[in-house]
Specification:
Elements lengths: L9 E5 L7 H11 L3 E5 L2 H6 L2 H8 L11 H15 L3 E6 L5 H4 L9 H24 L3 E11 L13 H23 L2 E7 L13 H11 L7 H12 L10 E4 L10 H7 L2
Parallel strand pairs: 1-2, 1-3, 3-4, 4-5, 5-6
Length: 270
Amino acid sequence: MTNQLLKGKRGIIFGALDENSIAWKTAERVFEEGGKFTLSNAPIALRMGKINDLAAKCKTEVIPADATSEQDLTNLYTKSMEVLGGKLDFVLHSIGMSPNVRKDKGYGDLNYDWFQKTLDISGLSFHKVLQTAEKLDAMNEWGSILALSYIAAQRTFPDYSDMAQAKALLESIARSYGYRYGKLKKVRVNTISQSPTKTTAGAGITGFDVFYDYAQMMSPLGNATAEDCANYIILMFSDYSRMVTMQNLMHDGGFSSTGITEDLIGRLTK
């Protein structure tokens, strides 16, 4: 049973790849809560994933867009407003990719062309999503725009590599554009720093299973699942969070505030 928290609201969800992804779970929950949306991903991701199955389930359309391309984003917003019948109330930026991580380049041996691509895809694209929306006047007042982050923006994690810098950029953009968009249109802009999550993308990081188990031991509530994150996103898209903006919201079962736990002490005791 749902509460129809998003009834009458329209938006765009970026990044749904398969049923394990946070964006996929979010799309399902938005649909259940009465929201309407279009789905978008890069053309190469569309060929790899199952997004058309999700579109059929949620009775919506897929509009391909490279989030690093202003032209693609302009087309996406324009077509989305046509398909949905008006301006938008929410956007989810669930986009991240590092060629250096994918190709196991060590942090002391990064390919800088790839590094720039990481920053463009995983960080700067959020600014492009926001700026294009503003230029097209695509958002209704009190709309909500979210991006997914990770605590590696503030702390060092082995093998997360240049994605850490991309997430730091992402969070900084949310603060700077959150102020601007709040003054202009009352649109709120936030990032959600999610627990390590067993998605297709997350599982591709070297040592992910160790990351996951460590966070589980360090979090009094345990790791937040993709379903948990989708529910939090629903709250942030709804009118119940209309005074929250420019924040990096920790959604990690308490991991970010915990120094050490009994579980970890027990594991390390010799």
